[in-house]
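Can you give me the bound-state structure? Components:
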Amino acid sequence: MSAANLRARVRAEMTEEIKTVARRHLATDGANLSLRAVARDLGMASSAVYRYFASRDDLLTALIIDAYNEVADAADRAAAPPATPLDRWLATCHAVREWALENPHQWALIYGSPVPGYQAPQDTIGPATRVLLLLGKTLGEAYRDGLVDVREPIGASFESELAPIAESFMPDLPPRAVADTIAGFFQLCGAVSAELFGQLNKSVDEDRRGFFEYQMTGAATTAGLTA
Amino acid sequence: MSAANLRARVRAEMTEEIKTVARRHLATDGANLSLRAVARDLGMASSAVYRYFASRDDLLTALIIDAYNEVADAADRAAAPPATPLDRWLATCHAVREWALENPHQWALIYGSPVPGYQAPQDTIGPATRVLLLLGKTLGEAYRDGLVDVREPIGASFESELAPIAESFMPDLPPRAVADTIAGFFQLCGAVSAELFGQLNKSVDEDRRGFFEYQMTGAATTAGLTA
DNA sequence: GGATTGCAAGAGCACTGCTCTCGTTATGGC
DNA sequence: GCCATAACGAGAGCAGTGCTCTTGCAATCC
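Here's the bound-state model for the whole set.
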């Protein structure tokens, strides 16, 4: 290993360490992450952190990308065949919910209100769409296998807007099914956020998982997926 | 008007003025509201604001309660009869969406990620449930008028958890319909948040209203409401 | 061996929420 | 009408923040 490579590796390790400590702070203090506090925890001056992240927003962006990839990884693992498409759809949703319950602050970071003044850079949109594409892939396989109650186009304007998306990213799906996928994904995010942000308090307290599955089954049904 | 009342009125006006300026700051700077900046705009010392709000969180709470009531008022106006229950359901959803589009930062305040360290006091839960109860009321009227495809209990555990809620707040609805109402409300919040927080960028750009209506119609259908 | 580069530390700026103290002003009881 | 009381606003100050700039050190390259 060359000296340059060693240098790069040390730098990467330091970067990772900063992110780890930042994540820990995120878990206790929430989204108003203090760069100085992170630096203190690492035993270094706050200015030193700026060698690794140009700004606090840059650090947040790194955490956001990691979070997107973490949920998506969890979803990928859960959606592995063999299983019926509906089972995989539900497994995906459950995996996302469980990851969110385990990492509430990271969930808030990516699906909560955007940090004020923070503009998500291009690097985030790839990881951000992974779960959506996974749901689309599952539905697409069901379409291919004839396991879906095929639903007619409705002729709405948004349907034609979705046609290019369908073609590029979900080639197995007609535009309306892409709409259903997006709607299902939004429903997933909405259900998880609502549970996480306390909107469910004092109504469903015990069987939250069951209620969640009920909702996600509904989303699948709306998409024509029943098996 | 007695002197005491005058004093109270001046105080109420000042309180309102602070909230107005704070709302304006919210619209430009987002949720990290600066008390000092608000005070500067009002031409007074930052410490003076503390005569009216014990802390920044208290000010935020006041804004949150106002925001809940504002959406709910808009929803109430939109849901006024005469119209079919489905029309009123959709009108409620559209009103909520439109209010959110006009007041994105206030929406983020109430339905985005909770402000770190901020614990919502009891005063907020009343206003917070108004839109949900309105949806329940609309569905309940449809039930009473026999306009709903009555759906059988599914015997899930969350269903019995919802029974007391049904009895106290939505007496016209069976527990499963309460679940559908809550699910619909979550779907509403999810769809609005997703659109507002930029998850829809570069997929549906023109006919967002149409896509939103498609989703909310789906939620109504799931609840058995088709007319 | 000397020049260059990457790194860390420290001081400092402008800002934040919040507290405390200090005069001022208005209110309510006598 | 007088006077104690309470409400109010201003200012200073504390501890904390993101971020920048300068300085010194150490490793790397030629």
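A couple of observations. Chain B touches chain A through 50 residues (CB under 8 Å). The CA atoms of residues 66 and 163 of chain B lie 30 Å apart.
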